[in-house]
Amino acid sequence: MSPTVFCEKGYRFFFFSREEPRMHVHVYCGDGESKFWLEPHIELANNYRLSRSQLKEIEQIIEVHHDELKRAWHKHFPG
Fold first, then answer.
1. Which of 17, 25, 62, 79 is the most exposed place for a label (fewest CB within 10 A)?
2. What is the largest CA-CA distance in the chain?
3. What's the pLDDT tens digit per position in 2-48?
4. Residue 1: is its pLDDT beyond 90?
């Protein structure tokens, strides 16, 4: 299962269930996908085919929605 937290500017922000415990978010669009750590700070973990400008845009979106993503993480992974 991979619940979508939200979609914005053509990107889908979601979690994979039963993955590693460190807080992170996956991002997908038609051009590729990436994974960003949410703690201890926002940081690119993996990138597949996304440009630097796309990664910068994604990171800015994550910054705006950081609290929402953390709340969604704790709701989806309670404990």
1. 79
2. 35
3. 899 999 999 999 999 878 899 999 999 999 999 999 999 999 999 99
4. no
DSSP for the chain reads ---EEEEETTEEEE--TT--SS-EEEEEETTEEEEEE-SSS-EEEEEES--HHHHHHHHHHHHHTHHHHHHHHHHHS--
What's the pTM? 0.95
Q: Where on the phi/psi map is residue 49: left (φ > 0), alpha (ψ -120 to 50), or beta?
A: left
Amino acid (1-letter code) at residue 64: V
Q: Is the dihedral of CA 20, 21, 22, 28 positive or negative?
A: positive
- The contacts of residue 31 (CB under 8 Å, 6+ apart) are 49, 50, 51, 54
Please check whether residue 41 is in contact with residue 55, taking contact to mean a CB–CB distance below 8 angstroms: no
Range of the domain at 50: 4-76
